[in-house]
């Protein structure tokens, strides 16, 4: 009788060669952790060491389990329900029943150390598997020995334990030497020799989370990993929109996006250790869609397909109340589907920003996320089935359907995200392929796809087409697009007016700075003097008088024109960016100076010189004639100004009238065309063979077409009417117009300010993140130096020659460490509790921090007794940075002056005062000194005082600039909240490590 035999190569063929890639292999290991009732599974990839550790806190394995189950290919351990659940745990559906998923480890690296601990065993099992051996032809499976040792519970294997496994493996390889190729033999020895330097105990110290020293579980230590793993984690560095392969395979491992769902049975993480201290969870919770994002998407569909493929659920369009919806599957024909019942939770974001209810920021963020992880995912028992959900795997042919008719189909695979939920019991005919590349293309899968495709087509017809029965989408979309178009039009107009205003502003400031008004005034006075001289020399008294009046009128008119050229009006209804506002304020000050110091005095000079000329003419030119001539000139100018405004207004009104008239004509034309089209269809339709119900349905279709057209055009005209009413509803039209323009300008200014603030906040956030990374790296390095100094001490004690080196190193390090300790109270994360803060502690902190600078610059830090004795309950992480910023600023400005340099700390009735005797702050800067971005320092960022005031305000404090400094420079006041200080807390220096 003959039997099958298995060569060792069968393991390689069933494992490494069956897996599509490394990400798929890691996904298999995560699923095995799920089947082992783990609550957490974590991947740790150490780039420098090319080491991957997959660890979980599941039930683990005993030595017997490992030998008789894990090492048995095609074991039946998961068939018939799998592992019994631990006490208190609900039974989980088994994700893998073939017994070959563990072989996927071979796709990640050529060898693996397996460490597993059963909850019921007193020892841990430690084994070494070299997968390269299984690629050798001519070797039977049972000839390859797997080295195993037992490790006491609570102890991580040592280097000696690893060496024991390696030597056992190499003994087995040497026995097979004659039957192995030279390449396989050498490779296995080289790979295993690399493990001799491997120290699990040292690496264990770098891991956080599940540990076999505390609980049961299984860990796979794979080294060296395939070099493709790093690329699968990082992805294409030149394309951020394309998600890395490992990210695509592991993201959303458990179903967490649907609102109201219970927490998943297992949480998955994967940490990329780019350095020994810096690790990033590449599939963290924020990377995948959240229930909040599902809820605020434009549209949501939630429901269930029954055993006949009929959908029953709700559809919410643009956040409206959910509408009950049913869709039958024509392919059922009264028969149950082979795929079985399943659920659908689908969210959708419109492809155009103008048609979405999301804010521009949320829309852009969701668009980026959709481009990376958008798609319709399939979850069996709340664990993802690969590759469904990958945006490059359009398994429902949505984009192909859309390409046929985008207006009819509506859906885009790249704009949706959601969950199709199946389970192992009712959907068992949906079977995964061996390589985890989706479901087998059997009849059940065909029904599954057909049901969903039919549903999407029908739902698009019912809700998301111009002629859909439910008109919420059409009406809301039109309203959103109308508002977006109006905003776009307004933004364009505002942008043009801002650009034009800025151009005039820059031109006026340039001319003012260049002294052009003074030169023009000089020319006006020179021309006046010349004309007056000619007038008084005229022998005809009457002609002379007329010439004097004409000369004065000409000079005053030239002055008026000069004033008009330099007097700019801020455009109404347009918000100005912060930089332009600052330029506008500067211009206003300069123009005010021009008006007071030049134009008014020039007008008086014109009147004086004209009066002198009139006086020389005697009684021929009396005062009344000059008065009447001057007033008449003013009257003419006033009427000319109103006439110009009248002409502009009438032109605008004429344009508005033409637009309104054309809009009315278009509306009537569209409705009349729809009526004629319906009449034409009616005339060509025979009603002889139609039933009463058919007649009713036909009438309803015709009526809906005309009514919908009329409603749409009526809405357009009503919107236009509302715009016109803004000008006509109030008795005082000028006030109404002013109110509307001012409100628009106010709102636009608020939005512009918020955008500027958001940009600055983003810059601060990025700066903070960078500092956090630097601080993390630096702190880790300091800890390492401190540890090594302690180790060096024993060497220095035994070796006199090392003692001076050790002493110098220790002194330098303690000096540096002292500075680092000073900043402990500034760390909000570590020091976020309110304490009784004493002035004496603030004094010591500032004295220590600025000792070197104050000594070098000859600056005295004066502290009054009132400040030393002051006490307040506050957060040190809030107040200390403010004091640091104020004293740092004071020191900087003190260095710009000579003589005694003093920084004084004082306290007076709830006011903490920081003063200096420096150059002070110019009056013009008093209001701007707390603005974000304002600074008089060269290359200053203008952040310190703004942030200080902001954080103090959030704690109920005030920060302001005093009217004057008691010692002559600048004086800043920190005003306490109105609350008493009670109790006592450890001082900041007592909390330092």
How would you describe this protein?
By secondary structure, the protein is of the alpha+beta class. The strands form four sheets. The chain has an eight-stranded mixed sheet with strand order 5-4-3-6-2-1-7-8, with helices on both faces. It has a seven-stranded mixed sheet with strand order 11-10-9-12-15-13-14. α25 (876-894) runs antiparallel to α26 (944-954). It is flat, with a radius of gyration of 41 Å. 29% of the residues are buried.
Mean pLDDT value: 82
What's the gyration radius in Å?
41 Å
Form type: flat
Please, how many helices? 27
Cα(first) to Cα(last) distance is 77 Å
Q: Structural class, from helix and strand content?
A: alpha+beta
Q: Which stretches are poorly predicted, pLDDT < 50 over at least 5 residues?
A: 733-738, 828-832, 980-993
Q: Within the largest sheet, what's the order of strands? A: 5-4-3-6-2-1-7-8
Assign a percent range to the helix content: 40-55%
Task: Give the helices and strands, then pairings.
Layout: H1 9-14, H2 22-35, E1 40-46, E2 51-56, H3 63-70, E3 111-117, E4 123-130, E5 148-152, H4 159-175, H5 182-194, H6 200-204, E6 217-222, H7 228-234, H8 245-250, E7 267-273, E8 279-281, H9 291-296, E9 299-305, E10 311-317, E11 323-327, E12 342-348, H10 360-373, E13 375-380, E14 383-384, H11 398-404, H12 406-409, E15 416-422, H13 443-463, H14 472-513, H15 516-536, H16 541-566, H17 578-617, H18 623-683, H19 692-728, H20 733-798, H21 803-822, E16 835-838, H22 839-849, H23 851-857, E17 859-863, H24 865-869, E18 871-874, H25 876-894, E19 901-908, E20 911-916, H26 944-954, E21 958-961, E22 971-975, H27 988-991
Parallel strand pairs: 1-7, 13-15, 17-19
Antiparallel strand pairs: 1-2, 2-6, 3-4, 3-6, 4-5, 7-8, 9-10, 9-12, 10-11, 12-15, 13-14, 16-18, 19-20, 20-22, 21-22
Helix pairs in contact: 4-5, 14-17, 15-16, 15-17, 16-17, 18-19, 20-21, 25-26
